[in-house]
Amino acid sequence: MEAHITGIGWFTAKNSGCLKDLDSFEMTPEPLPDIPLGELGPAARRMDVYSRLGMSGILYALRDAGLADWTLPRNIGIVAATEYACLDTDVAYHDSAAAADAVASPALFSYTLPNTFLGEAAIHFGLTGPTYVINGGACFDLDVLEMALDGIFSGETGAMLCGVVNPPAPRALPEVPPVPLGALFFVLEQQPQKGLSYGSVRFGSKGRIEFDGSEIEDLAELVHRCMEKYRRVYNTIN
Amino acid sequence: MVVRGAVTTALSDTLDGLWEGLLSGKTAIRPMTRFKTDRYTSGVGACIDELSAGVPGSMIHGLLSRLFREWGPTPADAFVLTASTKSGIDNLEKRLRGEPAETRDILLSSLPVIVSEKLGLGGGGINISAACASATVAVARAAAMIASGRRDVVLVCCLDLLTEFIFSGFSALRALSPTPPRPFDRDRNGLSPGEGAAALLLMSRARAEKENMPPLGSISGWGIANDATHITAPARSGCGLVQAVREALRMSGMAAESISAVCAHGTGTVYNDAMEITAFREVFGERNLPVFSVKGAIGHILGAAGGIEAVLGLKALSERTAPPTVGMSIPMERAEGMVSGSPVKFSGNRLLTTNSGFGGVNAALILESE
Question: ipTM surpassing 0.85, yes or no?
């Protein structure tokens, strides 16, 4: 069984947008620029940085796949990997509740769960599939892609978004190691709805993930191979 | 196949103790002493009083020690899927108060490592975070990994603590009941938080036979779906839960009529319980199969709820008995004939367990006994 990569998008310090519009991909610990809120919906103003980052990556990936616009909800799921998730928001919420005469903020508390932004994405982009966050491993590890493929191959859904969302490490924990900052998402479809595929992914005979028949090491390599293939095919056509 | 299960809660440290407590209608929800509650809309919860935080360690270590006290060996190549919403959040509270606290215990990514170290495992692992459906999603993911052949043994371990962080948050959302909760009761008015943990060891049939571990039951279907409606409130139509349950049924190859009983999320809040009964009526029609919730007895244990309820669900199947919904006196509208304050015997070997959470997530598992 295989699934097609039909969209890739990211928000990083170097650049942001859809793979088709960009020349390079790099996710580093460099500080991120401000995240444009205009296309993330009215709820974006109340979201924390982690949520805005995740929404941006999802927006660009869906747009790249031609799936950003919608009329009826779609059974598309989202699985996102993150190291520090909403820990900064946890601190902000704690501070809002800590003072003797304080009234804890219910709005902030809502964002102290790593998966809340997936609910925001589900609402804004009309996605009703499985949604959850995973934590563990290195930034570009393939666990999140494996989880997404499991979901498609088990028949839970025909399409999944999968990716990484890494906001800055929480300021209250300066000792934790830095991570590449930004958001990167892939759209996987069993049957491409808009016809375009960067290539296919599957579990190879050794259980490792293969892209177009050869093993990949991590998500960053997957982006680069899709980019190289797109440029090759696009330049051939043109 | 699920070959082993364990739970630890404020009601009991063991599955048998918890089961007996449920059948007797007991509740572990009582006045809180771990922190002052005079600022909050409730003063009750289900704390494990013996849990103590060693400086600088989090209470999660004590919880895991209780959970695995009589666990036995786990195959070293087991992949670990933990499920928690906040893990060692007590240590973040300590840090923010200026007290010494182990940073590693705070990070969700550390939890599978901590569990692996505790049990001497080397198969790797990740944590699943899906709000109050975290453990249910983790069990579904474990079942998917085994069904695909990628893994033949997965340990699911879920936990969450009752801390002031959590308590204050639900108070701010005005979701707490000032008294022990009354799931599916006409006069229900909120939830009570609890704390606890569960572990389930899943294996492929071939591996279970090789390890000579008879199954407690199997996960014959699962479904996960998002309401896409609101980030904290459930969709009143129950659309996400209906989708998740129907997906689980489709995967199991069975009709709704094959389900003998339901272990529901049943938090005791007005909106959750109404949503669930709406969803169950949509799926099961007017059939009055037993529906129960255990949160009136052990509290709402957030990310661990689904794992604890999956272990209890397997116990219910083995006993062919739905435990009473502790706290329920007068069934809410449309739940008459489904929920009961007494144990209910049932026939058949399939039980549905469901959980829903913030972020619009809904998850369903179909448990099947041999």
Answer: yes
